[in-house]
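[retry 2/3] Lipase: previous attempt timed out, resubmitting with same input.
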Amino acid sequence: MAGIPGLYIVVATVVVLFLVTTDFAVAGLCSPASVMHPGYKCQEYHVVTGDGYIISMSRFPGKGVASKKQPVLLQHGLLVDGMTWMLNSAKESLALILADNDYDVWIANTRGTRFSKRHLYLDPSEKEFWDWTWDDLVTHELSATIDFVFKNTGRKIHYVGHSLGTLTALAAFSEGIQVDKVKSAALLSPIAYISHITTTLGNLAAKFFVGEITNLVGIAEFDPIGKPVSIILGALCANPGVDCSDLITEITGPNCCLDASAVDIFLKNEPQSTATKNMVHLAQTIRYGKLAKYNYGNAWSNLEHYGVFNPPTYNLSNIPRNLPLFLSYGGNDALSDVTDVQNLLNSLQFHDVDRLYVQFVDDFAHADFIMGVTAKNIVYSQMMAFFRKHQ
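[retry 2/3] Lipase: success.
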């Protein structure tokens, strides 16, 4: 690896400055194979994180001059990618609704997903490529994408996260990471404390240490449709009370308002891979009931990484009280349970009252917030009103 740091800086500089538009055949949401709504201007960017991952970002600037518009960064959840923001019709998909309402829309694709399976010097076939958890998404990836949008637009951003995209944002803001470049944050199906999830499959996976076992046998990439992981998931699905005939409902809860064609498109494009180590970290969050950094399994390893025997926790009360926050959660959500959301709100009890908007949608489950045909009128309209209030 001699000489890598210097090469890293040179390549990073080149890649960060590299812009590809739809005039080129490039893997990303802008590529002809991925475009679902022709007629929208789309630009592809590549962002290098501090730990060397090359992240695909797609920009939908809408009509008119992008430099005069307010940028919005969309961050998807676990085991999916940026396509989830565009599964419905243009009038029902959040990314395009925002573009049509004069926002400059940026969509990030997390490391390990199909458009961001790249690194400056690691290959996805190497275990080292998958040596990360959501701690690294907080420290390196979210930090890089927020900074990139800020520097390219010269404006503070509105941030929109769903599921894991809310967890990383909350953790980052609590540590002061790039929070000065964020105008407001909208958190859909907010995830922080997840010890009360009601998905039977998820609880079984955490209870039986599926992530740890998968990691132990040397499977660094957690690919839900890959053979090794599929075998393990198949064994879990054989348990009484688990219905894997409808995995979306089994994992996310009984969604009220999904369009069948959107579900078909979803199933053709998802799921995506993540790091097995990331799944271990999420399972730890479920089992321990607190928002803490990755536990390396013994006190001495933790001491080596953190300088203390136990992993440090993220203190959400450290989130700046004047940061405008929009939280929307559902009564049927199996992953963002109402009890866990209440614990999150308790952590924000001293937040400025006029900077915290909380919306409860009784019949929504986890996927309704990104795929529900009624999400535009119920959630997105309120969210955009919130953005306008905090311009």
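[retry 2/3] Lipase: The chain has a mean pLDDT of 91.
[retry 2/3] clearing retry counter.
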